[in-house]
Amino acid sequence: MTVPARATARRVRQLGADLAIARVVRETADAVSVSFEVPPELADDFAYRAGQFVTVRVPIGEAGYARSYSLSSAPGVDELLTITVKRAPGGRASGWLVDNAEPGMTLRVLPPSGLFTVGESARDLLLIAAGSGMTPVFSILKTALATGTGHVTLVASHRSPADALFSAELADLEHRHPDTLTVIDRFTSHEGRLTPDQLRDAISSARWQDAFICGPETFMATARQALGSTPTHRVHLEQFTSIEGDPFELEEVATDAATGLNAEVTLDGQTHSVQWPAEATLVDVLLSRGIRVPYSCREGDCGSCMSKLVRGRVEMACTDALEEEDIEDGFILACQARPVEGPLQVDF
Ligand SMILES: Cc1cc2nc3c(=O)[nH]c(=O)nc-3n(C[C@H](O)[C@H](O)[C@H](O)COP(=O)(O)OP(=O)(O)OC[C@H]3O[C@@H](n4cnc5c(N)ncnc54)[C@H](O)[C@@H]3O)c2cc1C
Ligand code: FES
Q1: Nearest CA-CA partner of 69 in 99, 100, 98
Q2: pTM for the complete prediction?
Q3: Is 9 or 150 the better-scoring residue by pLDDT?
Q4: Is residue 38 domain-shared with residue 95, that is, in the same domain?
Q5: Which of 207, 259, 264, 304 is most buried by a 10 A CB count?
Q6: pLDDT tens digits for 32-78?
């Protein structure tokens, strides 16, 4: 007779919050803006910076699909937390939102996250966007005009005038900020795909220190090429991909003293001492302890959990969101990092 295997306690917690849709606006034939009501008790959790995104569980089938959507709203400018979703041809989840999202419906949403944000508001900005890539860029543009003193140049590539997102709001902003906002629209149906030379010409007289680029992969490569040798830290890129796993589900990690290595984690100016078990990622350890850590995809793609390993050694299953120089500088993805050698010290 074999001894029955001991059942391991598996405590699973659902992350995020159920938010009610307050408003749905059809932006184009293929895109809608969906605004959520954030109850006062969740206001801190859902505070955000321009350019960040939320991850939504799109309720198709039993498990649903987790999909990230940038916020097109701007903090301090727009009252409601708003995403803008464009139908991806053949896509599994975006079309469902475009066709079915309606006021009163509730969706599970993870708190805002992401590093595609502006630091100093006084700097001159160059924003380069195509298609749904307009969403985070529109948020950044509204915040820069509302709070900054720098100049903003937007180069926006659309398939046709009918596909242009936020065109009425942009025309209004141009009218209200004639000295600080320049909008250059490009239509691929009339003018063909933008080339690096054309983009270089278009921005030759623009004044800028930081560039923000978002759009399809080939468009982003064109834009990056046009900016030539501009140092990486001045060029911010946001890549849109679909999440494959389920970042809403957290298998709670036992963090008693017998199970892990000592780690000191500094977050929002506060230092936490935690036990970090070998089989657990740092994000899961912190979430299990109820510590508010930045995360979203939990699969190494979005970079939200990027932090610095100051002491100790970790291994990571995936480092997609890190550049080689980030790794050389000691940055890690806390959602991928498992401890190898302690004691450890990590700063967010
Ligand atoms: C940080 C971030 C912010 C984002 N912000 C926005 C935003 O503001 N607005 C927005 O609209 N989107 C945004 N996205 C993209 C969004 O998360 C989804 O990736 C997008 O909506 C497509 O999801 P889907 O389920 O419709 O398509 P998927 O089913 O994931 O498919 C994506 C594409 O791949 C193709 N495809 C799917 N399966 C296969 C296969 N087996 N073989 C070949 N091709 C296949 C589909 O035809 C489709 O064109 C963002 C993504 C990230 C990471
Ligand atoms: S949470 Fe997305 S890379 Fe870690």
Answers
A1: 98
A2: 0.93
A3: 150
A4: yes
A5: 304
A6: 999 999 999 999 999 999 999 999 999 999 889 999 999 999 999 99
Ligand 1 near 69 CB (within 6 A) = yes
- For the chain, what is the domain count? 3
| C-alpha to C-alpha distance for 291 and 61, rounded to whole angstroms | 31
Same domain for 133 and 103: no
Cα–Cα distance for residue pair 95/225, rounded to 1 Å: 32
Q: Is the pLDDT confidence value at 8 over 80? A: no
Ligand nearest to the CA of 326: 2
The CATH number covering residue 259 comes to 3.10.20.30
Which of 209, 238, 267 is a domain's end point?
238
pLDDT at 9: 56
Q: Which domain holds residue 148?
A: 125-238
> Which of 35, 81, 240 most suits a substitution to test ligand 1, by most atoms within 8 Å of the C-beta?
240
Contacts of 118 (CB under 8 A, 6+ apart): 49, 50, 51, 125, 140, 143, 144, 148, 210, 212
Same domain, 77 and 105: yes
Domain match, 31 and 63 both: yes
pLDDT band at 308 (very low <50, low <70, confident <90, very high): very high
Give the atom of ligand 1 at the shortest distance from the alpha carbon of 86: 11
Nearest in space to 347 (alpha carbons), one of 262, 263, 287, 267: 267
151 and 84 assigned to the same domain: no
Confidence of residue 3 (pLDDT cuts 50, 70, 90): very low
Contact 100 CB / ligand 1 (< 6 Å): no
